[in-house]
């Protein structure tokens, strides 16, 4: 093992890794098992940088960088997307290892800085093409659209990740497995993802000559825009040079309006993740002809019979600058409640990742179900759906049950009893609300 590389990542390294400012000799590992889970270790920095952005935005603009309901939904998608990794190694790594073990042509030295820099370029090049195809191929867009569904643009938007995306992205990295060891690839795959966190902000304007080479907040704002000039532009991960080379670069000019061209108008996590799959399914059956059906899946999201592969730009709704983002009309008190419940769920989520090796499969599965239930219930509350009170009553009951049986451990043992009282009050509150709603529903 390289003596300078450590599985325990120092504070300096943790800060630098958020900006890809790492040296080859401190991040080179002989075997995959030695590679730290950098993304997991970045959680405190995600939170700290989001708070810093909040403060800077208040100072510079006198307002927060986004809205609470939208930010909660983004973090919720981030949590959702990481849940499968509790059960198995990611498909991006599994397929890579398979290709490496069976088809590799050359075995580049894992400890050479040249291999490190080549992998940096290779992973970023693979990301560019994956990302471009994720916008140009409808079935891949079904996953990636989740990331674009926020109508705000701030650091929380970076966390709005898709559950499905990983099932197509692996293909674009597999060719690297013909010559680059998995341990080197696994490092860069994480840094490439982490780098893209800080560029999701409006508090950084222009970075001068750096804008020529690297992906910056300005370039990525264009990528998240639904203005016509922004569509299908700036696919870069770390280096903007790929967009400049392949003709997809666009500089930021008129004010960017963020989000999907057809906003989804919901905070419910399953809709955020899977609504476009349903759209593809219905369009597939409604479109006549075998080749047309095939095109629905593999051509661009804007394609239709008789149109070019990526659809017609004039069909993209024009922005006026007066668009009103979808927002929740629930009271401030209910929003505070949602934040408290979300924070509790996050604490259990973090603990589950930290303890996963020691937990039984049953506990792991029950915890994941509880996390998904919490995300859904908070989505229902923010959307003010008719069944929100019933679902929240059920969720609080499930919490108490899992807590009593021991599948959820007390976060602070001395407050265990207070926890139970709090959730009992929640059950009573939401239970009464459910009854009232049932009593006043028109079917009664
Ligand atoms: Zn994108
Ligand atoms: Zn983004």
Automatic annotation (TrEMBL):
Instruction: List the EC numbers from the record.
Output: 1.14.16.5
Extract one GO cellular component term from the record: endoplasmic reticulum
- Tell me the GO BP annotations in alphabetical order: ether lipid metabolic process; membrane lipid metabolic process; triglyceride biosynthetic process
Which spans are transmembrane here?
Answer: 114-130, 364-382, 411-432
Q: Does the keyword rRNA-binding apply?
A: no
User: Which positions fall inside the Fatty acid hydroxylase domain?
Assistant: 117-248
The main enzyme category here is oxidoreductase
Where's it found, cell-wise? Endoplasmic reticulum membrane
Its record classes its membrane topology as: Multi-pass membrane protein
Q: Which GO terms describe its molecular function?
A: glyceryl-ether monooxygenase activity; iron ion binding
Query: Which prosthetic group or cofactor does it need?
Result: Fe cation
Annotated ranges, domain Alkylglycerol monooxygenase C-terminal: 334-421
Q: What is its main location?
A: endoplasmic reticulum
Q: Does the record bear Chloroplast in its keywords? A: no
Q: Which UniProt keywords apply?
A: Endoplasmic reticulum, Iron, Lipid metabolism, Membrane, Oxidoreductase, Transmembrane, Transmembrane helix
Pfam families with a match to the protein in the record: AGMP_C, FA_hydroxylase
Q: Which reaction does it catalyse?
A: 1-O-(1,2-saturated-alkyl)-sn-glycerol + (6R)-L-erythro-5,6,7,8-tetrahydrobiopterin + O2 = a 1-(1-hydroxyalkyl)-sn-glycerol + (6R)-L-erythro-6,7-dihydrobiopterin + H2O
Which PANTHER family does the annotation name? ALKYLGLYCEROL MONOOXYGENASE, STEROL DESATURASE-RELATED PROTEIN
**Function recorded in the entry:** Glyceryl-ether monooxygenase that cleaves the O-alkyl bond of ether lipids. Ether lipids are essential components of brain membranes.
**Similarity field:** Belongs to the sterol desaturase family. TMEM195 subfamily.
State the protein's name.
Alkylglycerol monooxygenase
Phylogenetic lineage: Eukaryota, Metazoa, Chordata, Craniata, Vertebrata
């Amino acid at each position: 093992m390289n003596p300078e590389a450590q599985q325990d990542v120092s504070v300096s390294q943790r800060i630098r890794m958020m900006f890809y400012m790492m040296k080859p000799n401190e991040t080179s590992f002989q075997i995959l098992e030695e590679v730290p889970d950098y993304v997991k270790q970045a959680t405190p920095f995600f939170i700290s940088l989001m708070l810093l952005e909040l403060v800077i935005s208040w100072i510079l603009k006198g307002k927060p960088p986004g809205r609470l309901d939208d930010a909660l939904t983004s973090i919720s998608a981030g949590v959702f997307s990481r849940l499968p990794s509790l059960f198995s190694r990611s498909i991006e790594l599994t397929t890579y290892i398979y290709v490496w073990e069976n088809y590799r042509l050359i075995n580049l030295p894992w400890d050479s800085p040249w291999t490190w820099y080549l992998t940096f370029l290779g992973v970023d090049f693979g990301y560019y093409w994956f990302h471009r195809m994720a916008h140009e191929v409808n079935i891949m867009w079904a996953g990636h659209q989740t990331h674009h569904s926020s109508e705000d643009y701030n650091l929380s938007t970076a966390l709005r990740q898709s559950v499905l995306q990983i099932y197509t992205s692996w293909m674009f990295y597999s060719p690297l497995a013909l010559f680059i060891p998995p341990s080197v690839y696994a490092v860069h795959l994480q840094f490439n993802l982490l780098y893209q966190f800080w560029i999701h902000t409006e508090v950084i304007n222009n970075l001068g000559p750096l804008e020529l080479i690297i992906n910056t907040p300005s370039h990525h704002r264009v990528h998240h825009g639904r203005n016509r000039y922004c569509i299908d532009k700036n696919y870069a991960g770390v280096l903007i040079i790929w967009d400049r080379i392949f003709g997809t670069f666009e500089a930021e000019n008129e004010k960017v309006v963020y989000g999907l061209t057809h906003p989804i108008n919901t905070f419910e996590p399953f809709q955020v993740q899977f609504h476009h799959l349903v759209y593809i399914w219905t369009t597939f059956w409604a479109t006549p002809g075998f080749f047309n059906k095939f095109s629905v899946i593999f051509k661009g999201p804007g394609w239709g019979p008789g149109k070019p592969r990526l659809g017609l730009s004039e069909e993209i709704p024009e922005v006026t600058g007066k668009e009103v983002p979808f927002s929740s009309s629930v009271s401030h008190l209910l929003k505070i409640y949602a934040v408290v419940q979300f924070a509790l769920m996050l604490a259990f989520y973090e603990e589950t990742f930290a303890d996963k090796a020691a937990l039984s499969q049953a506990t792991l599965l029950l915890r994941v179900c509880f996390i998904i239930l919490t995300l859904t219930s908070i989505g229902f509350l923010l959307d003010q759906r008719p069944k929100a009170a019933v679902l929240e009553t059920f969720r609080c009951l499930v919490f108490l049950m899992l807590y009593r049986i021991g599948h959820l451990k007390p976060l602070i043992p001395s407050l265990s009893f207070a926890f139970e009282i709090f959730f009992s009050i929640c059950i009573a509150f939401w239970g009464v609300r459910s009854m009232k709603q049932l009593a006043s529903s028109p079917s009664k």
